[in-house]
Amino acid sequence: MVSLSLDSAVLAETYDRVSDRQFNHGKLLIEDLQISPGERVLDVGCGTGRLGAYVADLVGPSGAVAGVDPLPLRVELANEKRRPNFRASVGQAEDLSQFAAGSFDVVFLNSVLHWLPEKLGPLREARRVLERGGRLGISSAARERPHELEQVIEGVRSSLGVTAAAETLGSTTYKVTSDDLTSTLLLAGFEDPRLQIRTFTDHFADTDDVIAFYLASSFGNFLSNLDPAEAARVKAALAAELERRRAPEGIRLQRHLIFAVARAGG
Ligand SMILES: C[S@@+](CC[C@H](N)C(=O)[O-])C[C@H]1O[C@@H](n2cnc3c(N)ncnc32)[C@H](O)[C@@H]1O
C-alpha cells in the first residue's frame, strides 16, 4: 500500500533538487503533446511544480496551467516557482471536482499513474475536465518492463528470503501494462491512444544517492514496509549488487517508461 503520509519537508526539498530525471522525461511527454501558447493545461500529480512551471512558460501569458497534488509540502514548493499563470493546489487524480467539465485543452500525468491504485476513475476524471478533442499525456512505469532497480531489489529480496511483498519494496508500486492502459483509456472515453516505451539510462554516485533519489521520488515509500533490521540487510545486499553495475560515470541503472498520448472522445 502506498502511503501519502510519509512525506516531509526534507523529502519534498530533496525531490525538487534531484528530480532532473522526471523533469527531463517530462519534457519529452510535453513535446509529444505539442502544447501551444494560449492553451489551458492541467498537471495531475504536479509534485514540486518543475514541469508545471516549464509548461506555464510554454503556454505564455494567454495560457494557464493548474497543478494538483495530494502532498501539501510539494504544492507549497510548486507555488514558490512564482509563475503568474501557474497555480498548484492540494487534490487527487481520483477527484478533480474543483475543475469544471471541459475546462482544459491538455491534461498530463508525469510519473504519477504508477502511484494510483485504480486507473479508470482518474482517467474518467481526466476525460471529464478535458474539452472534446483535448489531449491526455501519461508517462508511467511499465509492468511488462520494470526498472532495472526493481529487478535488482527483487533478486535481493528472494536471495535474503525477505517476505515483504516485492511490489511495495520498489519505487513504482502500481505499474500498468501497455495493453491494460490502452483498454482503460478507451473505456474512460479516450480515442486513438498511442503508446511507446522509452528507455533511460541513469548514473548514480553511490548507493546512498540511489536510495535518496527513490525515497524522495516515492515521498517516503521506498523500502518503507521493512522493519529496521530487514531494511539494513536489504540495503547492504543492494549496495553490493549496485556496485557490480558501476561504470566510469557511476552506478548505471536503466528505467523503462510507457509514454501514452490520447484524445478525449465524444
Ligand atoms: C514522482 S512524483 C512526480 C511529480 C511530478 N509530476 C514530476 O514530474 O516531477 C509522483 C507524484 O505523484 C503524486 N501522487 C501520488 N498519489 C497521487 C494521487 N492519488 N493523485 C495525484 N497525484 C498523486 C505524489 O504526491 C507525487 O508528487
UniProtKB/TrEMBL annotation:
InterPro entries given for it? Answer: Methyltranfer_dom, SAM-dependent_MTases_sf
Fetch the Pfam families from UniProt.
Methyltransf_31 (PF13847)
Sequence ranges assigned to domain Methyltransferase in this UniProt record: 36-152
Protein name, entry field: Methyltransferase
- Give the record's keywords alphabetically: Methyltransferase, Transferase
Record-linked CDD domains: AdoMet_MTases (cd02440)
Q: Which domain of life is it from?
A: Bacteria
Molecular function as annotated in GO: methyltransferase activity
According to its UniProt record, the EC number is 2.1.1.-
Enzyme class, first EC level, given as a word: transferase
Q: Which GO terms describe its biological process?
A: methylation
